[in-house]
Amino acid sequence: MKETINQSEFFYSFANQLPYSVFLFKSKSQTFAKENSLLFSNSKAMELQRTPKLGSTHLNIGSLFPFLFESELFKNIQAVWNEYKQWEEVITKNTFQYFGFQNQTYLLKLTRLDSIHYTISLEELTDAILAEKILRQKETKLDRLLKTMINGVVVVNLEGQILYANESASEILDLELEKIENRYFSSKEWKQISEDGSPFPADKLPLALALGKQITVYNCEHGIISEDGHVKWLNVNATPLFDEHGNLEGATASFLDITELKNTQNTIEQQNRKLTSILNAIERSAIVSVTNPEGIIIRANPKFIKISGFTESEIIGSDHKILSSDYHKKEFWQGLWEQIKKGKTWEGVIKNKSKDGNYFWLQTFIHPLYNLQDEIEAYLSIRFDITEEIEALENTNRMLHFTGIQNNRLQNFAYIISHNIRQHSSNFTSLIQLLEESKSEEDKKNLIEMLHVSSIQLEETISHLNDIISINQTLNKPMEDCSLKKEVDKTLSILSGSIELRKIQVDVQIPEGLTIRTIPAYLESILLNLLSNAVKYVRLKQGAWIKVGIEENNEQITILVEDNGLGINLEKHGNKIFGMFKTFHRNEDARGIGLFITKSQVEVLGGEIIVESEEQKGSRFFVRLPKNPEETLRV
């Protein structure tokens, strides 16, 4: 205890003899904080007092030096506190709470004595001392700055000899500092090269220009070959240095290693050249457009404008609905947008319509384009005209369609030839033989009558064959827009006598103005066959009715002919109901040709016919036809 007191007395005695102010503080928590209490202030410090309270023990560092806890100063002190390093700062302050400086400039030092004690000293600075101190501080900061810079820095004298190099220069040049300093910047040992690999001209080096022409050089790029043969690329700045009299005394250069950047730049340039070639090829061969995220066209190449038939001013600012053919359903476009908004590429075939009304098909690829924030900023559409391919495929499908129909007809045709004609031929042969052998005139007369009947039957068979052939002959007949209400009314008018005779109630439900593009003769034949069958096989009693209904759905026309007549046993006859010479009732007018011809005509128009029936309850025939069959059935 006595030794501690002696040490304190020694410290106080020593401090009182110092020519500058000293304050001793204590930190119970071993931290630098405003609450650290004042233990002692020397006699020089007492001269600064404005109040007797300066020597009292309740004072702390926060009340005496509040400015030390301003953010920047406090941060600097904290950085050296735990390392027990001395911290100093030149300060100029007018007044404090307990003492004033009268505008003097002081050097403030903070020195940590042990874990809980530290001092703050205030030394008044003269102009000379201040200048020297400031210079020393600047030199220290400069040295610290140079050591921490990522730039390599060298300083040369008038002869170009390197006097100073920082550590970054050593790392960039792959040389120890001893090998850099004292070497001349223009020495051939550096092996400095231009971008094409040739030696870099010595008089064009940045330091040479700074010394020779006394100018500052920015962003000069050249390579330097290291001792192991690798090339490093440098970006160099250089500037002349002058003394206080304005005389040139040397130059300094700073440089960065841009080798990786240079290699990346070369790679990017190569990729850009490739990309440019690809884009030029696409521009020449593809139909290209770019839209904003909302689908508004902001760019269209000449091929796009040409195939669309619109002018560029009509295209830019519009969306792709300007080319809509109304072919694709709403769900198609919803699926497309859903996919590209998720950042996925969409691929598909789109049918478009040009300004002059021509349809064309495009194989389409839509790619999202992103900005630097990884947000979709546009959509790139690349398209190829595949109209010829689509039409060729449609023609192939139509040919297959017609080939199937023709094969079916040929089978029936062959059946007629092989069966019916052969029977007629055999019957004629037999009758003629009997006629030759007949003795009586009565027998001959009967045989001749039988020959006459057989001739009529043969004529009917040939007529049926002609009906089949006529379908082939009308395949290329022009199509027209027909009013469905008008055609049904015309057919019912033809059958009106039979309808009135059988007292049939007819219910017709057809929307006004509903039309279909078709071959008029086919539509008339289809309606006449279906309605005449309904009339023919009606039950001859009260309550007979026929209903005709037509509706449009998704570019398809559905014709319904329904009756409550005799009906058909579909379990027994369903697989042959549309066959040739198939009858299902004992009606003497039945020939078994009508439904066969109807089905053939429906199929030629690209449609289908379906039957629902039950014996003694009636039948329902559904005919479904495309509203615009020539779109898919052009031959």
TrEMBL record:
Domain PAC residues, every copy: 218-270, 344-398
CDD domains: PAS
Keywords of the record: Kinase, Phosphoprotein, Transferase
Keyword Phosphoprotein: yes
Domain PAS: 138-183, 271-317
Catalytic activity: ATP + protein L-histidine = ADP + protein N-phospho-L-histidine
The organism's place on the tree of life at top rank: Bacteria
Cited InterPro entries: HATPase_C_sf, HATPase_dom, His_kinase_dom, PAC, PAS, PAS-assoc_C, PAS-like_dom_sf, PAS_4
GO molecular function: kinase activity
EC number(s) from the headed UniProt entry: 2.7.13.3
Residue ranges annotated for the Histidine kinase domain, each copy included: 416-629
Keyword ATP-binding: no
PROSITE patterns on file: HIS_KIN, PAC, PAS
PANTHER family named among the record's database cross-references: PAC DOMAIN-CONTAINING PROTEIN, PHYTOCHROME-LIKE PROTEIN CPH1
Protein's name according to its UniProt entry: histidine kinase
Protein source organism: Leptospira limi
